[in-house]
Amino acid sequence: VSDDKKDSSGSADATLEIEEKPRSDESVESKEDVVDDKFIEIVETFIKDVKSVESLESFWKENAKEFKRMKEGQEATYNGLLESFAKIKSELTKEENKDG
Fold first, then answer.
1. What is the pTM (predicted TM-score) of this model?
2. CA-CA distances (angstroms) from residue 68 to 36, 62, 83?
3. Distance CA 65, CA 67 (A)
């Protein structure tokens, strides 16, 4: 075996580079759906636990790109999340004004 075929350990074993390809039944769109589902789950969990309007607004701003993508691809879901944000913001605002 020539030196150029040896790996750094001196072994002549070949290293195969395997490119991971999506299964034929798995489309790029289905991966996006999984990501969207996870994002929705994160948002719903956050909304349940948020304690201030400031935190709510900050979360929205930090995830603006994802919300925009969702609005363009899943408008009904986006609108549902928007309603949830508006409702919790209203509740938090009342609570903050009462405590204020």
1. 0.62
2. 12, 12, 15
3. 5
